[in-house]
Amino acid sequence: MQLSYSLRLFLGLIGLAVGIAIASATAAGERPVEIAGDGADAEKLFPRFKGAGGVYRIDQAPALNPDQPHKLLLDVTADGPKEEVHAGLEHAARAINLYALANVPRDKVSVTVVVHGEATPLVLNDAAYRRAFDIPNPNSDLLNRLSEAGVDIRICGQALRHHNFHESDVSHSANVDLSAMTTLVELGNRGYALIPD
After folding, report:
1. Is pTM, for the whole model, over 0.85?
2. What is the mean pLDDT of residues 43-53?
3. Fewer CB atoms inside 10 Å of the end CB: C or N, the chain?
């Protein structure tokens, strides 16, 4: 009987807290985030990076500070279909477009992509990718375009060797680091926000 009473009391307190939160939000005039259009007809936008990383306009979303630096560190480890552009690179393009949509100047946004684990092959040049998978690297164009847009693409040297690749197998758009571990720590110490895949 004691457990039943305690459980009822606990649930009652949770209900009270939820009710107070809803009443406070209503009194303050807060509304949920509204999306322009419904999901079926919302237009995908490419405000700064064309053809990849499309984003949707969200009305009523809080504004981002355009004067502060925004440092993103995308940790890309997951495998993907070898004949398709890797989702981790799409995320980098999306980050560029999101900050453009939020009116943050280009020079206030730093995006670094650290590739390791099963994602390692995505940074291979066409010749090495063809040797490994019998097709040219579908990521080559996006790698080049991201690099030209200022995205810093890093590949873990340890993962390269673990997967039997060499520095000469890497696309000219990527930089070879000692390891993903050391790069993630160093960039974290410099204020980059880690975004895992």
Report:
1. no
2. 95
3. N
